[in-house]
Specification:
Blueprint (H helix, E strand, L loop, with lengths): L11 H12 L2 H8 L7 H25 L6 H12 L1 H14 L6 H31 L3 E3 L5 H14 L7 E2 L1 H18 L11 H9 L2 H36 L4 H26 L3 H31 L5 E2 L2 H21 L3 E3 H16 L3 H21 L2 H11 L12
């Protein structure tokens, strides 16, 4: 229950959303049971894609329910982690295939960088704009507990700039990033528990069932979603590659933008729903946690999957384009972290991130990527040097937890 009393009764649209999420994977599960029924690649991409979409919704609902029983920081971590499981499945498939066929190496980086930039450029911006509109304010104020996610985002982002120096994402990178992820999990487990208001189908499960029933439904949804992802991820990823090759479309761009859009949409919707309920801080917290998960666990898992598939301890190679994409993603992440360091996110900052992200979709050339990289870096450094002192101090406090500006005591 929420802190304000019994949860409100579920609405009809909650039931509709619940039924839709459960039914979306069914068509592809039926097709897969009969060997795909000879569907062309375009139809495979569509039907398997909506199966992944439905699975992602179910994962989000099952994890939201967990907020009743565990600290919110850990719940946001779990929500972010399971919410991007479809993304992990697709990316690790590409990394595994790269060990067999080197042409797949670029797709793993494409999917990972696309998902990361989509999270900030579209997800963060959308939550802030909706929250500001709903709250009739010019900026969204973030709860101080979100410093945990931001601190690990800053650390992972700064390390990511060093990854391309070796020409690959190697097992040393995996060790560092997975170490950061485990440290993040440990810190999140120490958070305080607090009652929260659930949304949509998660509220339906919470209201209609006892504690045992609620947990049973959550586990059942999680298991069904996992099955749908297991059956759908490979054909969805492969169909995008074949569509690009057969229709003279840059398959790198298809993998970079279409696959993450399908796998991450439910997470965006959940975050926007939080913003509509005047809980934009929680929505941003979930998306920042997702960014940390992707920047640590996902990137760290890629070279492990590649090395196992290859049969030797080698890193996933990076060519010039993949290096550019990785550095551009790091620069975007740095600017966003600097903007959010003081726990305030203005409408203007959100619009700037959204416009920069949208422009990249229409300017995919090498020259454009370097210009965007330079702009992100100049903007981030400029904010730290010439921006408000409290923003600079806040960023340094994230980077160095024991550091405090002169005249300021421990919060």
């Amino acid at each position: 229950m929420s802190a304000d009393g019994p949860p409100s009764r579920p609405r009809a649209r909650d039931v509709v959303w619940f039924a839709l999420g459960v039914l979306l994977p069914v068509p592809w599960l039926f097709c897969a049971a009969f060997g795909g029924l000879g569907l062309p690649y375009g139809w495979v991409a569509f039907v398997a894609g909506i199966a992944i979409l439905g699975a992602a919704f179910m994962l989000s609902w099952s994890c939201e329910v967990a907020e009743r029983d565990i600290p919110q920081s850990l719940a946001l971590l779990a929500l972010a982690l399971v919410g991007v499981l479809p993304e992990y499945a697709i990316d690790l498939h590409f990394a595994w295939m790269a060990g067999k066929d080197p042409s797949y190496a670029g797709y793993a980086v494409a999917n990972m960088t696309g998902a990361n930039r989509l999270l900030i450029g579209f997800g963060w911006a959308a939550v802030v704009l909706v929250a500001c509109w709903k709250g009739r304010t010019e900026r969204l104020v973030i709860h101080p507990r979100q410093r945990l996610e931001l601190r690990f985002l800053v650390w992972a982002t700064l390390y990511s700039f060093f990854i391309p120096l070796s020409g690959s994402i190697d097992l040393f990178d995996a060790a560092v990033l997975l170490g950061l992820f485990l440290a993040y999990v440990r810190s999140a487990m120490k958070g305080e528990h607090e009652d929260v208001e659930l949304l949509g189908p998660a509220r339906l499960i919470d209201v209609e069932f006892s504690d045992l029933g609620r947990r049973t439904w959550a586990l059942a949804l999680f298991a069904f979603a996992g099955l749908a992802i297991f059956v759908s991820a490979e054909p969805f990823a492969e169909s995008l590659v074949h569509i690009g090759r057969n229709h003279d479309i840059d398959e790198f761009l298809l993998v970079q933008w279409i696959a993450p859009l399908a796998s991450e949409s439910p997470e965006f919707i959940v975050a926007v729903l939080f913003a509509l309920r005047l809980r934009g801080s929680v929505g941003i917290g979930a998306l920042v946690s997702s960014k940390v998960n992707q920047w640590t666990l996902l990137v760290g898992a890629i070279p492990i999957a590649y090395a196992i598939s290859l049969g030797e301890p080698a890193g996933l190679p990076l060519d010039a384009r993949q290096t550019e994409e990785l550095l551009l993603t790091s620069a975007q992440s740095l600017l966003a972290a600097v903007m959010l360091a003081n726990l305030e996110f203005s409408r203007k900052e959100a619009i700037a991130l959204a416009v920069l992200f949208a422009a990249q979709l229409f300017l995919p050339s090498t020259t454009a990527r370097w210009w965007f990289f330079a702009f992100y870096m100049v903007a981030a450094v400029g904010l730290l040097i010439r921006g408000p002192k409290d923003q600079r101090d806040a960023f340094l406090m994230l980077l160095l937890p024991r550091w405090r500006p002169s005249g300021r005591s421990e919060a």
